[in-house]
Each structure stands twice: as C-alpha cells, then as structure tokens.
Design brief:
Length: about 280
C-alpha cells in the first residue's frame, strides 16, 4: 500500500480504472458484433495522427483523437456499403495509417517524443489533465451506451430484426465505431496502440462464458479489465517492467488458463455424460 503515497501511481491507478470501464463497455459490443478487425484498424490508423502531430507541431493526443474519429467514420462508411470486401479495405487502411505515421515522424523537424509510449503505453506518466479527459470520455461513453443500449442490444443479436423495428442501424453502427475510436485514444495511454485490441477483447471473451446477458457481459468484462490492469500495474512497479505489456501478459495468461480449464471441464463433462448414459 506504500506505493499509493506516490502521486504518479495514484494517477496511473485511476487511469487504469477509467480505461478498464470504457474497455469493458465497448469491448462487449466489439466482440458480439465481431468488430475486432475494425477496432484494430482504427487503433493502428491512429498512429498516423501521431505522425501528423509531430510533423505540424501540435499535441500528439489531439492528433491521435482526430485520426481515430476520422478513421471510425471512414471505416464505418466503407464497411456499411462494401461488407463483402471490408476486410481488405480495413487491412489496407491499417497498414497505410502506420506507414504514414512512421514517414511523418521521420520527416518531423526537431526533437521527437518517445514513440515507444504510443506503441506500448505510458500509464505511469498520466497527468491530472489526462485523468480529467479520460473521466469525461468514459462518462460520455457510459451515457451514450445507456441511452442507446436497447438499440445496440437488438442490433448486436439480430440486425435484420432491428431494421424491421425501424431502428437506424447505420447510425447506431457509426455511433458505436465513434465510441470505439474514443476508447482507442484512452487505451493507447495505458497499453499502447499495438496492445489495445487485447484489452478490448480478452476480458470480454472470458466474460461471454460467465454471463448470460449483455449487461452481465459488460459488468464481468469491466471487472476483469480492472483486475488485469491493477495487477499489471502493481507487478510492473514491483519488478521494474514495462506496464502496458505486463497488463496484457497477465490478461493473456488468464485467457490461456480459462480456455484450458474450460476444455478440460468440457471433456470431463462429456465423459461423465457418456458414462451415465451407458449405466442407464
């Protein structure tokens, strides 16, 4: 508990909790609607915003935010109209965003910031201003999801039925992608753009097996994200490790254990049911 005496650690802990809640909420819809590849495209295209910011001399956070929003709108429009070829477009956009970011960073005049912090996160450098922005973003995401929850739920499980009910699924879809873009901006500060998809998907994948409702998935995935983030933060501080990869390493280990024990339990249940059937 002595580490809580340090302000930077308290800021990092608060940032981890805020990002975990946002990832738990949006990760549920990412997994259920199979938007993992699109979320990855948005995250990697955001690196182009870092390059733009360094080249033109403004805040990298602002550049990441603008590029994430533009990427969300662009990929949303493309995938709505060309779903059969959407994976190809996303892959090209993914690579182009990264390439643009690297080239503009190379061309940027003067001293460049530590780019590793954008690739793998820098949670220990979160400031109070960052915390305020994260709190606002998390609150906006929670409020929008609360207002649109019923429509999001219907669209997630049966898009055709949602259209019959008169729900503008295209608008709901774009709103969801915009929220994913906002969450990417937050999560990059914690685990970096390379690892952002893991924090959006691993807790939700485990939560999907534990919960029976969409609300339950959100609660479970948020809780698991909090556990992974706090554990990774403490271990990285204790053993002097990079925080972002440590968080994802813990999440990945839990994922592997969960899948392994689930498979063992499934096989045991199958053998037990067969033995019961033979005895009857």
């Amino acid at each position: 508990m002595s580490i809580l005496e340090f302000e930077f650690f308290r800021n990092a802990l608060a940032a981890g909790l805020l990002v975990s809640i946002a990832c738990g909420i949006l990760g549920t819809f990412v997994v259920v609607n199979r938007l993992v590849f699109i979320a990855g495209g948005i995250a990697h295209a955001a690196y182009g915003g870092v390059g733009l910011a360094l080249y033109f001399g403004f805040s990298p956070v602002l550049g990441t935010f603008l590029m994430s929003i533009l990427s969300s709108l662009f990929l949303g429009a493309i995938t709505l109209n060309r779903k059969s070829r959407s994976d190809t477009v996303i892959g090209v956009f993914w690579a182009a965003g990264m390439a643009m970011g690297v080239i503009l960073t190379d061309l940027a005049p003067g001293y460049n910031v530590d780019l590793m912090s954008f690739l793998f996160g820098s949670i220990l450098s979160v400031s109070r201003t960052d915390l305020v922005l994260m709190a606002v973003m998390t609150t906006v995401i929670a409020l929008v999801v609360a207002v649109l929850f019923r429509h999001l739920q219907i669209m997630s499980y049966d898009e055709d039925f949602a259209k019959i009910r008169g729900i503008r699924t295209d608008r709901i879809y774009l709103a969801l992608l915009l929220m994913i873009g906002v969450s990417v901006v937050m999560t990059i500060r914690i685990v970096g753009l390379i690892l952002v998809i893991a924090l959006l998907t691993i807790p939700t994948y485990i939560a999907e097996s534990l919960a029976s409702t969409l609300k339950g998935m959100i609660l479970y995935s948020s809780g698991l994200a909090v556990v992974f983030t706090v554990s990774g933060l403490v271990l990285s501080y204790r053993f002097n490790l990079t925080t972002g990869p440590t968080i994802i390493a813990i999440a990945s280990l839990c994922f592997a254990l969960f899948v392994g024990f689930s498979e063992i339990f499934r096989r045991y249940k199958t053998v037990r049911d067969c033995s019961t059937a033979e005895q009857e």
